[in-house]
Write a structure and sequence with these properties.
Layout (H helix, E strand, L loop, with lengths): L15 H15 L11 H8 L3 H13 L3 E4 L3 E4 L16 H9 L4 E4 L3 E4 L5 E11 L2 E11 H4 L3 H6 L2 H8 L5 E10 L2 H7 L6 E10 L5 E10 L15
Antiparallel strand pairs: 1-2, 3-5, 4-5, 5-6, 6-9, 7-8, 8-9
Length: 241
């Protein structure tokens, strides 16, 4: 987690300690912070968030009272095993050409951050990138990308500055399977700062994966859009004349 000053960021009109607790609560209940995860030390959280020590202490006490975390003397604070709300999934099928067409409608610029190399347990190499898509000069989407390095090397300059799905289409990359899941999430401190939105405001989270003919992952992305900037519209074919 990068250092930031939560006091200076856009916030809702609630006590600061309640806001810190709410962000961590969302991450625990969504599974982003799995059971057994060790939370950063108090001093580290205080420095990262730019808030007073007592603010973090109050937030942690709230989560402990709710049974979401547990403190162990000399070891740290850990996320407990809790019952998480069950999401009901609506399954729909679509052709990948519809995804390509949807991406074509987006007129955005890419603010690239440094890419890093990540090696999977099976020896495969991926290019990991984090970026911000901007529209009309304003942040529109935060994107975390994992891309097979062999594909990245086919057009490194384009992948660095363009939307990945569009480059896939132009290069004729064979995608045997593709899936996408959309959920409602909430902006944590880092995302709120990157997108210029309020902490804990609703965001659309889109998780996308492309697989090759061997069923291996070649591309994944998590896209986060401010909830008030995006709407999804679907038109159904009825077969009627």
């Amino acid at each position: 987690m990068a250092s930031m000053n939560l006091q200076a960021m856009k916030r809702t009109a609630v006590p600061l300690h309640a806001e810190v607790a709410e962000v961590l609560r969302h991450e625990i209940l969504s599974g982003d912070l799995p059971p057994g995860t060790r939370l950063p030390a108090l001093r580290e959280l205080t420095e990262q968030l730019g808030v007073a020590r007592m603010t973090v202490v109050q937030a942690m006490n709230t989560l402990a009272e709710e049974g979401l975390i547990e403190k162990y003397s000399g070891k740290g604070t850990f996320v407990k095993e809790v019952k998480r709300p069950k999401r009901h999934t609506l399954h729909m099928k679509a052709d990948i050409s519809q995804l390509y067409a949807m991406v074509e409608q987006l007129e955005v610029s890419v603010r690239q951050r440094d890419a890093v190399i990540e090696k999977a347990v099976d020896g495969r190499v991926f290019r990991v990138m984090s970026r911000i898509h901007a529209r009309s000069g304003k942040p529109f989407c935060q994107v975390d990308i994992k891309l097979d390095d062999r594909i990245f090397e086919r057009a490194p300059a384009r992948f660095a500055r363009e939307i990945v799905v569009s480059v896939f289409r132009d290069l004729g990359v064979t995608v045997a399977r593709a899936r996408q899941k959309m959920t409602i999430s909430y902006a944590d401190f880092a995302m709120a700062q990157a997108l210029g939105i309020k902490v804990n405001s609703a965001v659309f989270r889109v998780q996308r994966e492309f697989l090759d003919a061997d069923g291996q992952l070649i591309y994944s992305a998590t896209l986060s859009y401010p909830g008030d900037l995006l709407a999804f519209e679907m038109e159904f074919s009825t077969g009627a004349v």
